[in-house]
Amino acid sequence: MTVLEGTMRVSATPEAFRRGMRRLAGACTIITSADGSGVSEGWVGLAATAVCSVTADPPRLLVCVNRNVWAHKTITASGVLAVNVLGRAQDAVLSRFSGAGVCAPEEKFHSSKWRAGITGAPLLEDALVTFDCVIAETIAASTHDIFICDVVEVNDHGAVTDPLVYFNGAFFS
Amino acid sequence: MTVLEGTMRVSATPEAFRRGMRRLAGACTIITSADGSGVSEGWVGLAATAVCSVTADPPRLLVCVNRNVWAHKTITASGVLAVNVLGRAQDAVLSRFSGAGVCAPEEKFHSSKWRAGITGAPLLEDALVTFDCVIAETIAASTHDIFICDVVEVNDHGAVTDPLVYFNGAFFS
Known about the structure:
Number of helices of chain A: 3
Oligomer: homodimer
CATH superfamily of chain A: Electron Transport, Fmn-binding Protein, Chain A
CATH class of chain A: Mainly Beta
């Protein structure tokens, strides 16, 4: 515990916070973007659970992204991103986008069907739902940026299947 | 679809957005606050799924709250809130805090065990985890405020049970 200012501004430790956050279940998503070249070699993506709805009218959501991840630079340069929400059968897609070095950047989009959305960001064709977005505002928060996004297009993909959910260090459906 | 500016700034409809967001699974939480009087009559709370981690170091999370809900005024006036993450057996707690008029404000905290945390905001004793927080920054986003919060204390409560998750209009564990 670190006393920041006054008696109330103590801070929980990063370790206690990380351990606690493992108990906040989150939908598994792939955040994607594109460099504007119009070819799939310019696509980037990362796995994330830090996505939430902000307002429905106008349609707005937010995404928190670590500034150190490879995709961050493309997201900020292009000003667009897409949120691809994964279903229970898509843990293999998740693996391709999780962690560093598991899969070369150009291989992340192989073995699953992706197409460019209105913004140019890639959309996973059989995701539970995709949100194609233009970034309206970026808020710096120490190691991360919070991207507040206007939703350009929503694609529900067919029947509702169970979602892929992260909880307590593992994935469930 | 509304054309905002240029060809790319079209907007999804609120209805399409709401329907799509039903497919983004979210952990069920109760967001609480207190009016500073030090008595439980000053406690307020609402059910929410729009919570996500921002950074671990410093420990920070964010919560989106509609400015029209009854608890909003107390949250902004006090500058504190707590996030109480519900387990599978706590759907009765969720019901007390969901929607309007289901339960009178002073009855929301009955029939489950709550205690004041460091900030004064009430913590649910058998929640999966609680995060007691001081609001660091408030960002207005049309109908909602985004509260970026410094986490003061994290309480893991005993064994990990299954979480209570909202998906496609219903609650699951």
